[in-house]
Each structure stands twice: as structure tokens, then as C-alpha cells.
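Look over both lines:
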Amino acid sequence: MRATAVASIVELKSWPLRQPGDGAEYTVLRIDTDAGVSGWGESRARTADFEAARGRLAGQDAGSAEAVASRLAADPPGVRAAVNLALLDVLGKVCKAPAYDVLGGATRRKARALAPLHGTTEAEWLESLRRAREAGFRAVSVPLALPEGPVRGRGFFRRTRESLERLRAAAEGVDFVLDCGPRATAAEAAGLARELEGFHLLWLEAPALSLAELAGIANEYAVPIGHGRSTPGGAGFQDLLRADAMDVLRPDLALWGITELRKSAALAETYYAAMAPHHRGGPLGTAAAIHVAASIPNFVLQEVPLPADERDRAMRRELAGAAIETVKDGFLELPAGPGLGVTVDPDALERHRIR
């Protein structure tokens, strides 16, 4: 007997958005089905990319996310990611269950959250830290202040440690990640790992280095290494794990979507690595990330954007409500509604659309 489709895709629409303060951009996608159920997704793909995929999506079973992904194999990763989120949103709504229940049930009832700090000076970090604390965060990521010039003396490593110590003293009970950014060299990352062994970072976010360089740092020093946000998925993640080159896998939600992140988590689990997905997009991406956190066993932290500008924070609340990004005592609550558990305001999408 032929299986009956959950619902067939009949239309898709996308809204390119830009936050008014920091200029962060992301695109919200809606997929409509013949069952009258719509699903929402998000990524950094362009509207033109979604339009190009329209013909390959029309008529497809909205309950078959893997089969649909195979039809989009040649499309940009961001298209596949947003479509994956939207289809799991549809499936959860049809089943009248949160996406994490459709994916096998919750492994936890709340997800620990991490806020990236803003700025390039210690004074700016302190202000950003204060804002994160007031918003309920108990873990933050500090961007490395990398001075100009090719050589870093001992003073650079000492000053970085002392700056982190002052941040910690200003916010008791907060844990820290140090993000090396894209410019740091292998020698700088190794020097920081050596200097910060006694500081007990959650992890050191390593720059894009070779496998040998990453593995050398990860095996030489006690500081956990986080990596993977710019790594091609699948084979790239497996190479990192096989080389014992990191401790915390950081795949980018906007590139891989829920299904691929769960596959990456299963791969990381076999190498005793933790998962802390990278996320710098919008509130729908935050909702999707919480469902990933709720449905994998090796989750540790979820990055949640906390813009410095109140206009940006207001925009995010307008789009998807305040609850999805509300942090209490360091944790995000799991969405209780069906699908992604988010009600999107179409009027807010139109107000903030890039014209």
C-alpha cells in the first residue's frame, strides 16, 4: 500500500530582514501546504536562492524532510537549512507535538544559553556583560582583542588573562568562552591556551587552523577547544573528530538546519565530544536551536544573539514573541507548542523587510 503524504508543498515565501542597529541580516521562509498548515524556517540564504528552489519543492511531501533535502542537494546550504526547519515545523503541527517530541522526545527540560559579548575594549565588554547578566545569561563569549602587528609578546597573553579575570570579578557565577576570531594564528591560539589553563574557560573558540595545528593545541593543553562553525559539514566534522582536534563541536545552524545538526551530534557523541551549535541569526533560528538542544544527549550550550541595540531586541520580540529568547537563571525553556513552537507576526515581517 502506498504511504499517504503528510501534506504537499504548494507555496513558499521569503522575507529578507535586517536589524536596524547592528545590521545583522537573515531571511525568514514560510512553506505553505495543501493541508492548510504552514511551516517557518530561517537562514542566511538570499530570496533569489529560495525562488530558484521553488520548482523543486512544489508538490513534495512536507513530511519527508530527508527526501526533500536530496532534491535540494545542489542548492546553497542555507536553502536546505531553512527548508528543513520549515518542514519540521509543519510535521510537528500536523502531529500536534513539539518538533523535539517528533524527533524522539526531549533529553532535557531546559537548555543552557550563552550570549556573545559586543565590543573591542574591556569597557565595552563590561557593559555588554552587565546587559547579558540582566537578561538572565550566566555564560558569555568574549571576542579576543587582537592588536595589530605580526608578533605577540608575553604581555599580550598576560593582558588577555587579566582582562578576563576582571570580567569574572565583575560577574560572579558567569562562565566564559574566549573567541579567538578569524585572525588569530596557531601560535597565538596555543599561547592563549597555555596562559588560560588555570582560568577554566568553558572552551577556547579556535580560529580556522589546520587539523595538525588544532590537534596539537587540543592535546597539549587542558583548555577545551571549540571549533566547527566554518567547517564544511559531514566529512569536515569527521576529520576534526578523528584527529582529536576539538572538544566542543560548533556547527552553524544557519548552514545545516535541525536534521544535519542532529547527525553531527551523533557523530560527535561517538568521539565523546560535546555540541554547542553556532547561531548568530534571528529568533526563529533560536527556536530551532532549542529543539536541537532538546533532542540530543551531548548538548552543552546554545549561543543566543543578544544585540546591544534595543531596536534590534525589539525587532526580534516583534517577529516571534519574547518568550522564545527569554533566559532565566542561565537557561532557555523548551517551546511547548507544536512544531517549532513559535507564532510569527506577518506584519512584523513586512515592517522589517529589506526594501
The mean pLDDT is 95.
